[in-house]
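Deliverable D2.4 — example input (structure tokens):
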């Protein structure tokens, strides 16, 4: 059984362990076994271990995050654990650092001058802070560029912090933009929009009985006024629109 050995490795490791690393460590430790452990066996064992710790009995779980497998406490226990670590549990980044980190994550590998061209400002301080927090790493130099500048990529700590296994797991920019556009331009189809008559009926149905009677009385008074305006003057002969004039001299 290799499951206990894998559990021990993942638990004791201070960083996420990838399947090839686990496979190599097991074959070194269990060299006396005739049949060497293969990738499929390690993957199957890890899946079984992950299912085991999904039980409510455990406060932690085995998950694939940060490019490998690791033990993590379950998210529902975060309020309790935060009491132990306090502010040490938080990694605060400035807006400039977040913008720089986003550019590196989506444009990697990228040089500092390319980052500054996108942001439009100097990013020396932001890059330095990201390096100190181990969210990015120097991946080499851009040999074909003048001066062979350093190129930056996100680190395994970045993937671990954001719960992803590679840059491919990042949300696609176009998908985010499309979602924002859809939310901003959501309209009611014309066939679903209420007509004036429907709106009037709905607004009247929401009135109280007293308001209904007042509204009916107002409508009646308005109708009476219109009728009075159109009624002919009784003092005027309908056959002669002009009043009779005195013809006596």
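Example output (designed residues):
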């Amino acid at each position: 059984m290799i499951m206990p050995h894998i559990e021990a490795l993942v638990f004791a490791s201070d960083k996420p362990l990838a399947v090839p690393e686990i496979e190599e460590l097991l074959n070194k430790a269990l060299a006396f076994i005739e049949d060497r452990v293969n990738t499929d066996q390690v993957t199957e064992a890890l899946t079984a271990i992950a299912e085991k710790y999904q039980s409510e009995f455990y406060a932690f779980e085995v998950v694939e995050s940060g490019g490998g497998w690791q033990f993590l406490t379950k998210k529902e226990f975060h309020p309790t654990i935060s009491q132990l670590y306090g502010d040490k549990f938080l990694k605060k980044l400035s807006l400039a650092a977040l913008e720089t980190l986003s550019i590196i994550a989506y444009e990697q590998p990228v040089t500092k001058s390319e980052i500054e061209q996108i942001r439009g400002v100097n990013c020396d301080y932001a890059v330095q802070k990201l390096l100190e927090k181990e969210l990015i790493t120097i991946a080499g130099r851009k040999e074909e560029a003048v001066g062979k500048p350093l190129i930056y990529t996100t680190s395994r700590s970045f993937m671990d912090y954001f719960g992803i296994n590679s840059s491919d797991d990042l949300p696609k920019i176009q998908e985010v933009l499309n979602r924002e556009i859809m939310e901003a331009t959501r309209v009611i189809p014309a066939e679903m929009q209420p007509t004036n008559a429907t709106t009037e009926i709905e607004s009247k149905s929401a009135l109280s009985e007293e308001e209904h009677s007042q509204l009916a009385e107002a409508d009646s008074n308005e109708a009476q006024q219109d009728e009075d305006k159109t009624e002919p003057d009784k003092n005027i002969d309908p056959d002669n629109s002009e009043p009779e004039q005195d013809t006596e001299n």
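The longest helix spans residues 209-230.
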